[in-house]
Design brief:
48% of the residues lie in helices and 15% in strands. By secondary structure, it is an alpha/beta fold. It has a single domain (2-191), classed as Uracil-DNA Glycosylase, subunit E (3-Layer(aba) Sandwich), CATH 3.40.470. Helix 1 packs antiparallel against helix 4 (100-117) and helix 3 (62-75) crosses helix 7 (165-171). It is globular and about 40 Å long. The structure holds uracil.
Amino acid sequence: MEKLISELSSLAAEASACASCRLFSGRKNAVFGDGNCLSPLFLIGEAPGREEDAQGIPFVGRSGKLLDKLLTEEIGITRADYYIANIIKCRPPENRNPLPDEVESCRHFITEQIRLIKPKVILTLGNFASQAVLESKEGITKLRERVFDIVIGNVKVKVVPTYHPSYILRAGGMAMAEMRSDMIRVKKLLRQ
Ligand code: URA
């Protein structure tokens, strides 16, 4: 446990000092990860937004609040029960989509986080994170409702792709019900 925390802290320090792509120049904070690093559940989003950049913590803005609510209602968990991080550690300007070279510069951080934390289940949030983790070009509507068995960072994991909570904030209704059903899928996998 101490070794894990110390390895994650060194990696977080590396992210805070990272200047391997253009995003470092606009950041207030690198946003490394948050939550319980001993958990079998790892949630992966896209990139920090304004609030996350200001606080250095992932998913603390509006979409994070919705995510917290859905996780509590469907799985009965809070942030103390799972780990959460983004593919990209620094905020892209005006929240634009991360560029391919930014994903490649940052990829080793998420791979290392997975290697160290060894989750059983990864819930990817949205198109971008799902495609990056699964190394797929398929859109989220095609990737959803499936469970992918993959090896990443030398760890065998089950990946459940779902929508990004910011999409649910816009789309509501049906999409929210579908995201809830993805969370129930995760709950069942965690029990297996
Ligand atoms: N959206 C993300 O993908 N990640 C965050 O941390 C916040 C919003």
